[in-house]
Amino acid sequence: MSISSILNIAKNALLATQYSIQITANNIANINTPGYSRQVPVFEAEASFRIGGAILGSGVHIKNVIRHANRYLERQLSEKNTELSENTIYRTYFDRIENLINEDHSKLSYAVTQFFNSWHELSLDPLSVTAREIVKANGENLARIIRDLYNNLFQIQIELDEKLKVEIEDINRMTKEIAELNRRIFENSQGTQGDNNLMDKRQVLLRELSGKLKITYFEDDFGMFTVLTKGGRVLVDGGKSYSLSAIETGQWGFSGVAWVDPQKRRIDITGTLEGGGLHAIIKMRDEALQKIISDLDFFAKTLIREVNNLHVGGYTLAGTTGIPFFKDLTEYFAKDIDLSEEVKSNSKNIAASEEVSALGVPVGNAVAYNIASLIDKRLDFETERSTFTDFLSALNSRLGQLARNANELEEFSRETYTMIEKQRESISGVSIDEEIANLIRFQYAYQAASRLFSAADELFRSIIEAVR
After folding, report:
1. 62, 44 contact by CB (below 8 A)
2. Beta strand pairing call for 379-380 and 362-363
3. DSSP letters of 2-58?
4. CB 143 within 8 A of CB 339
5. 10 Å Cβ neighbour count for 415?
6. Helix or strand or coil: residue 238?
7. Rounded to an integer, what distance in angstroms lies between the CA atom of residue 59 and that of residue 45?
8. What's the burial of 28, exposed, middle or buried (CB within 10 Å: 0-12/13-18/19+)?
9. Pairwise CA distance, residues 83 & 92, whole Å
């Protein structure tokens, strides 16, 4: 082996250990970077050569830099993130709705009781103007509470609709970035070695995207990902991305989700979405919330129907009849419930008696008594028979159970996600102790390689002195 060969070995060893120190330093610097995967150099001996009967080595080089990432765990994390994001939406909004409907906040059951109690008081003194004013005030309060509850629930639907549009914009941003990273990874790749940092960024985006909707993805021979919705619509194909769009659907003008094909046609995929925040938003807006609004509407409709049926047959203080207590509605009962114009303008138009005397004076208290008795009567609420208070109690119980279930599912999803994330960290995460140990090891290797230069220099000096 010549002295120049020793110098070449020393040079390669210095470069290999220098790059290894740089890789280790990069690991340490990114210890807190989300989604970063630990990188490790792979050393390979240089090609050997023959001198006489001996085969000698010629040093070392870095063959590759391994990115410590487990594809199975990454997929598991994406799937669990889909589940977690969906359950987080449910928990957040069911908690809000429960607090909104809850008796401590709405006072709806209390208002119902006060309303019918005031009719009972009127039945005890059917000619009292004061008792009528109390009935009117309690009726207005009950109607206002129902309207406010409806408006608050409808506002949550509008909020979810706006959130849906924001989620679609985020999805489009992510798919564009993933496609761009695909392109850059392909351009920067050398053989089987891609850009590890770009791969980490892409994986972080894929996990973030999985929280928006359920996706499936696979890698081609060039290291580029193809991403599809669970329904089979392509979101990313190599360096090209396909966008989603909000489309108007339903009687309230709420938005659905469309996939934009290469010809820019919008194809409605709302019904094919599975999992993730996008799916949860649609289900929360169109199913869970709509069911609660429908229940409130049934309640208002039954209240208006039953009270008006009795009230229109009664006589007012002026001896007139046929006046409804509540405004007569044919739809949107919870949205528009209010007292009739006759009652609002004059409480004397509230009927309490079932007949009038020959002088036109109201006689008896049957109307007021029968209306007061409605509070204990089992009535037809479209889908069930119940009393007013039992109907509201069942609604609150159902909401409470839904909120508890959503909290438990969200907690379970978060725990399992955290467990898988810890498994990923044990493989891909950076251990500061391990990196410091590697740093010391590479430092000693670098110093040892430096000594080879000193040895080669001494050999040169010995040869020069021998020649003199």
Report:
1. yes
2. unpaired
3. -HHHHHHHHHHHHHHHHHHHHHHHHHHHTTTSTT---EEEEEEEPPPEEETTEEE--
4. yes
5. 10
6. coil
7. 6
8. middle
9. 14
H/E stretch holding 298: helix 289-311
**Pairing verdict, β 355-356 and 362-363:** antiparallel
pLDDT in 10s for each residue of the chain, 468 residues: 567 777 888 888 899 999 999 999 999 999 999 999 999 999 888 887 777 667 777 788 888 898 999 999 999 999 999 999 999 999 999 999 999 998 888 899 999 999 999 999 999 999 999 999 999 999 999 999 999 999 999 999 999 999 999 999 999 999 999 999 999 999 887 655 568 899 999 999 999 999 999 999 998 888 899 999 988 999 999 999 999 999 988 667 899 999 999 999 999 999 899 999 999 999 999 999 999 999 999 999 999 999 999 999 999 998 899 999 999 999 999 999 999 999 999 999 999 999 988 778 889 999 999 999 999 999 888 777 889 999 999 999 999 999 999 999 999 999 999 999 999 998 999 999 999 999 999 999 888 888 887 777 777 677 776 665
Per 3-state DSSP, the chain is made up of helix, strand and coil in percentages (nearest 5) of 65, 15, 25
For 73-131, what is each residue's pLDDT tens digit? 999 999 999 999 999 999 999 999 999 998 888 899 999 999 999 999 999 999 999 99
Q: 104: buried, middle or exposed (CB in 10 Å: 19+, 13-18, 0-12)?
A: exposed
The whole-angstrom separation of Cα 281 and Cα 166 is: 11
The residue with tokens 């290291």 is 223
Q: What is the pLDDT of residues 172-187, one digit of tens each?
A: 999 999 999 999 999 8
Long-range pairs for 214-218: beta carbons < 8 A, 24 or more residues apart: 214/82, 214/273, 214/274, 214/275, 214/276, 214/279, 215/78, 215/82
Which residues have CB under 8 Å from 434's CB, separation 6+?
none
- Closest alpha carbon to 109 in 73, 332, 117: 117
Query: What tokens does 337 get?
Result: 């419930």
3-state helix/strand/coil string of 98-149: HHHHCHHHHCHHHHHHHHHHHHHHHHHCCCCHHHHHHHHHHHHHHHHHHHHH
The torsion angle over the Cα atoms of residues 218, 221, 223 and 228, rounded to 10 degrees, is: -20
Handedness of CA 382, 383, 387, 391 (dihedral sign): negative
Residue 384: CB atoms within 10 A of its CB come to: 13
What's the CA gap between 113 and 131, in Å, rounded? 16
pLDDT at 247: 92
Rounded CA gap, 348 and 310, in Å?
17
